[in-house]
Design goal:
By secondary structure, this protein is α+β, with helices and mostly antiparallel strands. The strands form 2 sheets. A 4-stranded mixed sheet has the order 4-3-5-6, covered by helices on one side. Helix 5 links the parallel strand 3 and strand 4. The chain starts with a helix and ends in a 9-residue tail after the last helix.
Length: about 220
């Protein structure tokens, strides 16, 4: 708490830098640009111009998530403490997910659920539908408690012995700053990673579900 109070007395830019340093290293480059676009003058976020968003659209991946591979990720983790809902179609997100999966081999405390999978079921995940979990990171504790945003990352990292990475985000004003930084990233992550807007992703998913209603093996 004393550390948080000392940090609170420093300039805003200094506090923002500390918040960014508390995030995973592979997010710093991308997220720092997005953070600058929101808080620093004369800055433009990636893939944006002064006339509004400029989307870099690419076709939705035709590769389906292998349910066998996902089951293998969770083998031996029946006594999980937290469930991570992640977007398997997000290349930047998967860097962190893969790191946590590797780390989890020695703990077995995280259960991984790919929301991009055709097998994703809201009923099995506290009623969290696809649109909701695509909007921001969600994790579910073993007692059914749902946590989001930076708290979700902190809980996940704590589950595999890396709690120190996000420890500072427990305290204000760092908690608010970190959530703000993550919120900007979550808002723009699809266009940053070259994917269509969320509305188009959801529509494509619904169309696929209709096409494959009677054929689970079909693909777009």
């Amino acid at each position: 708490m004393q550390m948080a109070l000392r940090v609170a007395a420093r300039p805003v830019v200094r506090r923002a830098n500390i918040a960014l340093l508390s995030l995973p290293p592979h997010y710093l480059t991308t997220k720092s640009h997005v953070f600058a676009s929101k808080f620093l003058p004369n800055s433009t976020p990636p893939l944006l111009n002064q006339n509004g968003p400029r989307y870099s659209i690419r076709a939705i991946s035709e590769t389906n998530v292998d349910p066998v591979a996902q089951k293998k990720d969770n083998e031996g983790h029946e006594n999980w403490k937290i469930k991570m809902l992640y977007d398997g179609d997000c290349p930047l997100c998967m860097r962190e997910v893969d790191m946590l999966k590797e780390r989890n081999k020695g703990y077995g405390t995280i259960k991984f659920v790919d929301i991009s999978s055709d097998e994703y079921s809201p009923e099995e995940n506290e009623g969290l539908d696809y649109k909701t979990v695509m909007g921001t990171i969600h994790a579910i504790l073993s007692d059914g408690t749902v946590v989001t945003n930076v708290e979700a990352f902190r809980r996940l990292y704590e589950a595999v012995g890396l709690g120190w990475v996000y420890a500072i985000t427990k305290y204000e004003p760092i908690a608010t700053i970190a959530d703000t930084v993550y919120g900007v990233w979550a808002k723009y992550r699809l266009q940053i990673t070259g994917r269509p807007p969320l509305e188009e992703v959801i529509l494509a998913r619904k169309n696929k579900e209709e096409m494959c209603k009677d054929n689970k093996a079909c693909k777009i």
